[in-house]
Amino acid sequence: MKNSTLAIWLEHCLEFINQAEDPLSAVIFEGVLHAADTGHLIMLESILSGTAHSAVAVNRPLESLLNSIYITKMVIWGRLEAEIDPAQAWDMSVGLEILFQEALIIATDSYTKALAESHQRHAVEAARLSQEAEQKVMGYATELARANRELARLEQAKSDFISIAAHELKTPLTIVQGYADMLLEQELARVSEKAQTILKGIAVGAERMNDIVNDLLDVSAIEMSSLVLNPEPVVVGELFQVLLERASHVARSRQQTFNVDIKTDLPIIQTDPKRLYQVLDQLVNNAIKFTPDGGEITVTAYHETEAKTGADFIKVEVADTGIGIAPEDKEYVFDKFFRVGKTNLHSSGKVKFKGAGPGLGLSIVKGVVESLNGQIWIESQGYDEVNFPGSTFHLRLPVQKNSEE
Ligand code: ADP
């Protein structure tokens, strides 16, 4: 392959190659020249292997590399035809042909090898990344499971605390209430008016505390699914009568208009009347509480048959013109201890405007309604203490087929 005549002449061609438009040609030419000069392909191989690797790295096709070899060859060929006598040129052109054949083979081999290496690298990298991702996901899952366990443990501790505290408070509270009532009823307390006022204060405070303890007991019973229900046939209209009489009186004290539309054809349902009363009372109380003075409360109840299933329900709606509930809070207001915005915390007045309690009322309502196989949901344009968009609480109670007769 060593061809000194060719090498000498090739050196003379260098300036033409440098002028060739293809930037790779000059480098390839160096390799060809070295091969002709030394008889070794080592430099041509290293040049073409490097170029092939770069081509693969930037996604250039093999054709572009072969094209550069072809351009180099054509430039030299042109000079050979133009400058050398054909008899002498024959030998040189054969040598050139052999060298460029080699160059094409080396370039193709190198490119194929570079491509395979690149694929393998990508595959190894992809496998490493996927393994890394898998490990991360497993790590997160373990962390999440641990956090969930901790959360469940804390939730259980909270429930236990509520249950124990409520039960423990109940006994001494009953004693305080009992003694206060006894004193109020006896001559002893009538000695002075001042003593009577103090005793009444104690009784009212103890009653309020008793309500809170009862709420806590309900919350804990709902959480432990041990709420005791005493179902019986209930005439819902009658239940409403008692409740609405009291509520309209309270609403009047807040200068609120109280509208009632209870249909007379409500079917009798099998339910726990005390628990249902508790639910309706809470909803009406909340409507009064979260509506400003002069607002309007409307309680509606009617019989509804679902078109799709033919199932019967009693539908109750408690609508108010109060502060409303933001869309993002609609599901959370049913969580225990949840309150929205700035409320007058721990108000002693049950129906004072925005006089929030401990935030247990609606969580009990939801628990009780679900125990009675009913549904409850809220409709409200949002929370706004300037324009008062109001809220409507929808309650749906099932009518059992045989309880209608
Ligand atoms: P509490 O009244 O003891 O704070 P509830 O569980 O009865 O607890 O109510 C939770 C929260 O839901 C209230 O603090 C109030 O922010 C909101 N809410 C309940 N009823 C209404 C209503 N009718 N209009 C606007 N907000 C309400």
- Spans of 5+ residues with little confidence (pLDDT < 50)? none
The whole-angstrom Rg is 46 Å
Could you tell me the strand content as a percent range? Answer: 5-15%
Strand sequence of the main sheet, in spatial order?
2-4-5-7-6
* Arithmetic mean of pLDDT: 89
Main beta-sheet annotation: 5 strands, mixed
Helices and strands: which structural class? Answer: alpha+beta
What is the CATH C-level name of the largest domain? Alpha Beta
Find the count of extended strands (DSSP E, 2+ residues): 7
Bound ions, cofactors and other small molecules, one mention each: adenosine-5'-diphosphate
Q: What is the third-level CATH name, the topology of the largest domain? A: Heat Shock Protein 90
Structure description:
With 405 residues, the chain is of the alpha+beta class. It has two domains: 4-129, no CATH class; 232-398, Histidine kinase-like ATPase, C-terminal domain (Heat Shock Protein 90), CATH 3.30.565.10. Helix content is 60%, strand content 11%. It contains nine helices and seven strands. It has helices at residues 4-19, 25-38, 42-57, 62-83, 86-185, 193-223, 236-253, 273-289, 361-371, and strands spanning 232-234, 257-262, 269-271, 296-305, 312-320, 375-380, 391-398. The chain has a five-stranded mixed sheet. Strands 1-3 form a two-stranded antiparallel sheet. A hairpin with a 6-residue loop joins β4 (296-305) and β5 (312-320). It is rod-shaped and about 145 Å long. The model has no long low-confidence stretch (mean pLDDT 89). The site of adenosine-5'-diphosphate has 22 residues, from α8 and α9. Residues 286-287, 290, 320, 322-325, 333, 338-340, 343, 356-363, 391 line the site of adenosine-5'-diphosphate.
